[in-house]
Amino acid sequence: LRFAMFIWLTVVGGLVLILRTRFPYWLDDCVYILRSLLLAARLIMYKRSKPFHAVLDAFLAAARRHPAKTFLHFEGERFSYGEVDRRSNRVARVLRQEAHLREGDTVALFLGNEPNLVWTWLGLAKLGCPVALLNFNIRAKSLLHCFSCCGAKVLVTSAELQDAVEEVLPALREQGVSVYFLSETRNIQGVNFLADKISKASDQPLSRDLRANVTYRSTALYIYTSGTTGLPKAAIITHERMWAASFLQSLCGVTRDDVFYINLPLYHSSGFLIGLAGCIERGITVVLKRKFSASQFWDDCREHNVTVIQYIGETMRYLCNTPKRDNEKEHKVCIAIGNGVRADIWSEFLRRFGDIKVKELYAATEGNIGFINYSSKVGAVGRINFLHRLIFPYMLIKFDIEKEEPVRNSQGLCVEAATGETGLLVGKVTRRSPFVGYAGNDQQTEQKRLRNVLKKGDLYFNTGDLLRFDEDNFVYFQDRVGDTFRWKGENVATSEVADVLTMAPCILEANVYGVKVEGNEGRVGMAAITLKEGEDFDSAGAYNQTVNYLPAYARPRFIRIQPSLEKTGTFKLKKTRLVEEGFNPALISDPLYYLNAAKRTFAPMTTEVYSAISSGMIKL
Asked: What is the maximum alpha-carbon separation in the chain?
């Protein structure tokens, strides 16, 4: 019997060794597939339950299960699940009475990363009200545009954003939008201050009947994103999609004993859906920061025993650029979830800060396809497996970069890219993987739809991203196509930037694009412009124009003045050569300028300035 057992163990051990040698990621694949099946079963159960079981219900269950457990750490304060539940009840009661809210009414939240946003959203969810999460960096035209997208007639904001609100207050009144501040009364006419009323309101639970008609197909959130062109677009996030995004933490191995660190903005899908909603799904503790701070990052992690962090590529680069410390590996962080990190920064991050499992993601807020690098292979944004492709059909198709359109064969169908070849990622639109689109913007929704891909009449979501699949089934991000660039973790629509620039009196036309800068993630904004006849370049005026109308991440850092802008035969602006040439004055004879914030102008670009920017001496 012992000999038989020895033979059996030897055979099994040999098979495992062969599998690990020939298929080194088979165990990772098996774990991921098992987790995916269990989560899919849960989602089906939630969708079929009556009444529908939403993420809010997961929070309420956690508040009942462990009311004293810390839900939020914020700037030295601690808020338990039970306390956040009670605070959300108060907010819900006051907003229902003051704003006359009913189930289905959309409310815009214009708030920074603070606990107020969390319990205000929960309170509105208890009323069955969808919430539009506004980027607190936007101003003027962009801010007003966001209301027309989602149809919100109520704005909830804070004293910190008073100036931005007052700037558009007359226009908001014309649109019939009521403004509510979650702060003490101030001398501002035409707005409402709720702090006193909220403090006096009842914190008793609200009736489930207030949201009786909410289903998995109902809109839960509007999250704004810049896609191919134009002003921010309101991506519709249904309750089903919210659940799916919240499951990403579980897929990455986060458990109910973890502590999660959120320093990304909550108006983003990463911070809100993957971060906050994911923590609610797990029932865990959140350490919330107003904004990212490289100098405080690891001290925060040590103080609160953080085990899971979120990142974008810039986050890791900033951390790697901090001065080295003797204790920088003394922490409990074991998982990092995010997107956009370069392979070299990734490797340096692991070398500096220890054995942290980096779970790189690829996804779009409004998209129907995404990937997880659950094997933590450096440089990859995801991994292919048969189950994922079966449930969410997708493919890479050949793409003509010059024409900015898919390559089609003689039958008018798209051509699939070969393994190892860069191609445009498209996801098939099905009942399981829908593309809901953008609120109040049918034109932009249609532009993201790609028809006649594999056969006549089929429909796919066009991600607008070029990816590559290798022979080991790993996925690599290559580039973004279309009229966008990504900087500081934000997608920037080039047409919006061009519209702002051409408002400057001296500028006739503007061709905006993104260029790479040594040592920086993504691409920074640059504009090739032409001047109006008889006009000289007003560098200070152009600077004021960009600063007054564009958030910091969208401002073009470089300007190139050309006699004329090169266009295609169909009058599209050509960008490929401009992107390749970048902002190097040694390669460009046209006048070049860079945004000099210290002098509040666009200053002439010199070889010395170029070297300083490339070496990191001048920060962008």
From this structure: 98
- C-beta separation of 244 from 43 below 8 A: yes
Same domain, 108 and 215: yes
- Are 404 and 522 members of one domain? no
Question: For residue 287, what are its two tokens?
Answer: 């350490």
Helices (H), 132-251: 140-150, 162-174, 195-200, 239-246, 248-251
Cβ pair 401, 481 in contact under 8 A: yes
CB 365 within 8 A of CB 225: yes
Co-location of 589 and 471 in the same domain:
no
The tens digit of pLDDT for each residue in 579-599 reads 889 999 999 999 999 999 999
Torsion of CA 483, 110, 254, 344, to 10 degrees: 40
In a domain, 541, yes or no: yes
Contact between 156 and 120 under an 8 Å Cβ cutoff? The reply is yes
> How many domains does the structure of the chain reveal?
3
Give yes or no: residues 441 and 511 share one domain.
no
> What is the residue whose two structure tokens read 């998995």?
216
> In the predicted model, is pLDDT for residue 187 greater than 90?
no
The whole model's pTM is what?
A: 0.83
For residue 487, pLDDT beyond 90: no
Domain with residue 197: its CATH number is 3.40.50.980
SS3 at position 31: helix
pLDDT tens for each residue of 385-407: 988 898 899 999 999 876 778 99
Domain holding 213, by residue range, is 81-238
Q: Where are the alpha helices (DSSP H) in 418-538?
A: 442-447, 494-501
